[in-house]
Design brief:
single chain; 215 residues; 2 strands
Length: 215
């Protein structure tokens, strides 16, 4: 039972409690660059998730075999290997998607989420919790990208996943298709989550104050 709870916590840790985008504010380059549409966002998120899960699993398995002196270089080689696999896979599946994501597929190697998970978690834990944590972190990153990309596509093109949502008189917000649009939407989500967190904390403080007064 304790193992089940622990594994669930490992998964939820990256999915929500330490969401890479909205909590830890990591991986901002792809977050702001490729989120002009929902399809691009999901594609980049799933590509990053695959690399994250595969590399963390392998690093966890090899954690006792990798010398400490070359651990960072070893992690980068492992991550780069899986990035190459993803790069060729996307290129084979869809050239349009490959061109849309551009150099950001290769730059997954430099994404601080991957190296951070490898050093701080996968290298210190057995394969199962390391993999679950990586899955949660990858899906959390994907959901964050989708939240931003979905809003930008709706406001910037009047579509979602390429499907028109509004009539012919809709005027797209051009700024949403430009780099500043990513900053505006990210800021909006961060303000929303900060407000929810502050409201929750106020309720907790009020309940504790009430209990103290009753005591």
């Amino acid at each position: 039972m304790n193992s089940t709870i622990s594994n669930f916590d490992e998964f939820m840790d990256g999915l929500w409690k330490q969401n890479p985008i909205f909590v830890m504010v990591l991986g901002m380059c792809p977050t702001l660059a490729v989120t002009v549409s929902a399809v691009n966002s999901i594609s980049m998120g799933l590509a990053t998730t695959f690399v994250l899960v595969a590399s963390c699993m392998l690093i966890s398995i090899l954690r006792h075999a990798i010398p400490k002196e070359v651990r960072i270089a070893s992690y980068i080689v492992i991550i780069a290997t899986f990035v190459t696999v993803v790069d060729y896979a996307i290129q084979a599946i869809s050239l349009d998607l490959y061109e849309a994501l551009g150099a950001y597929i290769k730059l997954i190697v430099a994404n601080c989420i991957l190296l951070g998970r490898a050093e701080a978690h996968a290298a210190r834990n057995p394969p199962v919790p390391a993999t679950l944590n990586a899955i949660g972190m990858g899906l959390g990153f994907t959901l964050g990208l989708l939240a931003i990309g979905g809003v930008r596509e709706i406001l910037g093109a009047g579509k979602l996943f390429g499907v028109a949502l509004f009539g012919p008189h809709f005027q797209p917000w051009v700024v949403m298709a430009l780099p500043p649009g990513g900053f505006f939407v990210l800021a909006g989500w961060l303000i929303l989550f900060a407000g929810i967190k502050a409201n929750k904390q106020r309720k907790i403080d009020a309940e504790q104050a009430l209990k103290g007064a009753q005591a």
